[in-house]
Design a protein that fits this description.
Blueprint (H helix, E strand, L loop, with lengths): L4 E5 L4 H13 L3 E6 L12 E4 L5 H11 L3 E4 L6 H4 L3 H22 L2 E7 L21 H14 L5 E6 L2 E2 L9 H11 L3 E4 L7 E2 H14 L3 E4 L8 H11 L7 E4 L19 H7 L6 H14 L10
Parallel strand pairs: 1-2, 1-4, 2-3, 4-5, 5-6, 6-10, 7-9, 8-11
Length: 311
């Protein structure tokens, strides 16, 4: 496939940062980047930058019709799982209504729409899950992702949904993830509790970028799962992080899920089976150990400062 015009909505986020880096290094794609904070993005010659709020559907439509991208990537969204329970209107607008609008735009432009979902569309009773397992979200965030998937896949033939779980990466831009939250606590010497459950297979953002590029070049539609080969509890992830970074793992204490004070329920046995992505796209997913070692090296190479946000 020839190099294409790729429009990314939510370009300041964690996944988008890895996408921008990958596309710049590995392709000649021209990027059209939409963000609330375009001044914070790396600026490359030939790219187009637009300051726009993800809820400004009219402006997004105008930009899409002006730029006419062959591929639209929706990397925007409301990802605070607990706040989704109380801020339902804005989370629905960002996760579902935006997707509905992008599906309509993509249909008119004949563009390939790529969106990101989560293992939270499942109830966590028997994970890890395959692409065609029945969805049954147990929190509002999961319901919005379920709604987003339906809005894209049922309204647009050229649509791809990429499900992820426990995303982390070496890019320093974007929101603080679970791994960086653990590192902050350990670096500060704080003792803390981590649930000994809520199983997942952590997803390295650089792997997501490779999957997206394969989906574009191979023109693949439907649902694809991403995730590392390690299926671990949150507690085990924290212990592995402490070990790789040579930090004090005795600061980490296990706690059962029923003793947590989280507003939203979490799937206990989540995670994603990635066989389809491995066989159809030719992806080799990064183990947690390899990903953490890459993250450790990147943090040594850059003066990383922790920015704490809701986890």
């Amino acid at each position: 496939m020839n190099d294409v015009n790729v429009l990314i909505i939510g370009s300041s986020g964690r996944i988008a940062s890895s996408l921008i880096k990958f596309f710049n290094l590995e392709t000649n794609n021209r990027l059209i980047l939409l963000s609330n904070f375009p001044e914070k993005l790396p600026h490359y010659e030939g790219y187009s930058y637009h300051k726009v709020n993800a809820l400004d559907f009219k402006e997004i439509k105008n930009i899409c019709f002006e730029e006419r991208p062959e591929v639209i990537i929706n990397a925007s969204g409301y990802t605070d799982v607990d706040k989704c329970e109380t801020e339902r209107n804005i989370s629905w607008d960002l996760n579902v209504t935006l997707a509905e609008n992008l599906a309509s735009i993509s249909r008119v432009l004949d563009s390939h729409l790529i969106s990101f979902s989560s293992d939270y569309v499942f109830d966590g009773s028997k994970g890890p899950y395959c692409e065609d397992d029945r969805q049954n979200p147990i929190n509002f965030y999961g319901r919005t992702k379920h709604g987003m998937e339906n809005a894209c896949l049922y309204n647009l033939n050229m649509s791809t949904v990429i499900r992820t779980n426990c995303v982390y990466g070496s890019e320093t831009k974007g929101k603080t993830d679970f791994i960086r939250w653990i590192l902050y606590k350990l670096e500060q010497g704080y003792g803390f509790e981590i649930v000994d459950g809520q199983y997942c297979n952590p997803t390295f953002t650089e792997d997501i970028a490779v999957v997206v590029n394969k989906v574009i070049t191979k023109k693949r539609y439907g649902i694809y799962h991403t995730g590392g080969p390690d299926w671990l509890s949150r507690y085990d992830i924290a212990l592995n992080t402490a070990r790789i970074f040579s930090l004090d793992e005795t600061l980490i204490k296990p706690i059962s899920a029923n003793k947590l004070s989280q507003r939203a329920r979490r799937p206990n046995k989540g995670g994603l089976v990635t066989l389809k992505s491995i066989t159809d796209l030719g992806i080799k997913f990064t183990s947690l150990e390899s990903g953490l070692m890459t993250l450790r090296q990147s943090m040594r190479d850059s003066r990383f400062t922790f920015v704490m946000k809701g986890n």
